[in-house]
Amino acid sequence: GKPDLVLNMKKPISVRATGDLIYKYVMLSEKFNEEKIVKAVVMDSPMTVVHHAHVIVMPNSFDEKQAVALETGDASAAMVFKRIYGDSISRKIRMTANGKSIDGIRLDQPIAATFSRPNRYSILNGNEGVRIPKGSYLAVILHIESTGKEEVEQSKFSFYFAPNDQPRNLIDQFTLVPSALTIPSEKVVVVRSEAVIDEHIQLERALVHMHYRGSSARIFVQQSTADGKSLSSPVLVADLPYHLFKMQTFYRFKDLTLLPGSKIITELVFDNTSANVANPYPDRAVKIGKASLDDEMHFPRIYYSHIQPQAQPRNEVRRD
What we know:
By secondary structure, the protein is mostly beta strands. It has helices at 64-72, 77-85, and strands at 5-8, 13-15, 22-27, 36-44, 50-58, 90-97, 100-108, 111-116, 121-123, 128-132, 137-144, 151-153, 156-161, 169-178, 182-183, 188-196, 201-209, 214-222, 235-240, 249-258, 263-271, 286-287, 299-306. 6% of the residues lie in helices and 48% in strands.
């Protein structure tokens, strides 16, 4: 049907024929004068140079000078969210690399839509929605990669909102990301994270997103008892035995609820050896930082909805 709102990138982005991966930050909208609930967004783009894109909900607008500062700062795209929103969106979690403790955080990110090639559609289930609060703005983060020839990208986004009188199951999301991580040359590193859930939620889906050295991933859950005094054994709920940079993978869960005190456990394997055919530079160590072919900062993204207190808990965990 006809979209409720269409937002265009005002200026085209010129992408050179070769070079590192880059992020571009572009404002899309003026301030919203009333709250909206997004139920679908369509990205009009061939996605030739766009590996993935996020339409993000912004508390303030930014100008082109501020956008350049975000794009060129020595921080991963995940960490840029902390620069935009402050420390209130992050909390420390337990994280290890090959069994050794490293600093890791959970980032609660206000994202209205995610597009991961080849998907140009962000469509929620019939009763789901993402909230855009009154007074907010929308911007887009584009992850750009060179293709061997000069390209131009100027995306358009069509938004479909829920009727004002139609209740929605609001979807939120967070990512689990290391604050610092180095993957030595010719080494395989397993990054394991544990995030404790502090409310009754339903897991909706997950996006496993890594770069060239990402080789496989698994997601487990440990269910808490109703009194919060014990945990079940870990149950595998998502398994990605072979990761492809060109095709990122979404999982949708069915009837998977977690009580407060439960854990989400993720294991991401990064292969920085010459045996990894996707590895552009097996002779280099890679680390978190400014987006480049040396950068391996990505994460699993977890989408969930809030369960109201009167809802009856469903303790069964199963993989679909």
